[in-house]
Design brief:
This protein is of the alpha+beta class and about 170 residues long. It is about 30% helix and about 15% strand. The chain binds zinc ion. GO terms for molecular function: hydrolase activity; nucleotide binding.
Length: about 170
């Protein structure tokens, strides 16, 4: 039921929702990590323990996410090493977003658990650039926001900055 509210219209254009139900075996983020052929990955970068991708359903231009390669469903399961790696990577991502998009600000963080609105159990950190004069989050949730940039356009702009070789 949360999924209905958390993604802009057009979700079905990218993935078959039924394939990625609630069990770990069909976790979409694990599928991205495994580079499964029929999954659109939108990969930007990869470190020892994490992956950076463009969000499949960007709320805003430059919306990306970082997630661990391990299927972790609780933030508390991250090791000390992973915590440090994650926040270093977040900083790097934001420097690149600053350069490419020059946003006025950011919303960045996790939705942890279904009760908090997480639609995917595998933890993932959102980095959402915010711009002056854009529509508010309520407009996004109401589905009235127009997607001003597709995930592929975001990928094209950001990938050269990450210099990630697929
Ligand atoms: Zn997973």
């Amino acid at each position: 039921m949360f999924e209905k509210h958390l993604f802009p219209p057009g979700k079905r254009a990218y993935i078959d929702k039924k394939r990625f139900s609630k069990n770990n075996e069909s976790c979409i983020l694990c599928s991205i990590i495994k580079k499964e052929k029929d999954v659109i990955t939108l990969l930007l970068d990869e470190t020892k323990n994490f992956v950076v991708t463009v969000n499949l359903y960007p709320y805003n231009p430059g919306h990306i996410m970082i997630f661990p390669k391990r299927h972790i469903t609780k933030y508390q399961e991250l090791t000390e090493e992973e915590v440090v790696e994650l926040f270093r990577l977040q900083k790097r991502c934001m420097k690149i977003l600053d350069k490419v998009y020059s946003p006025g600000g950011y919303n960045t963080g996790f939705n942890l658990g279904r009760a908090a609105g997480a639609s995917i159990d595998h933890i993932h950190l959102h980095i959402v650039p915010r711009f002056k004069n854009e529509l508010g989050f309520v407009d996004i949730l109401a589905g009235s926001k127009i997607m001003v940039e597709t995930p592929y356009e975001i990928l094209e702009k950001l990938r050269p900055e990450f210099e990630y070789e697929k």
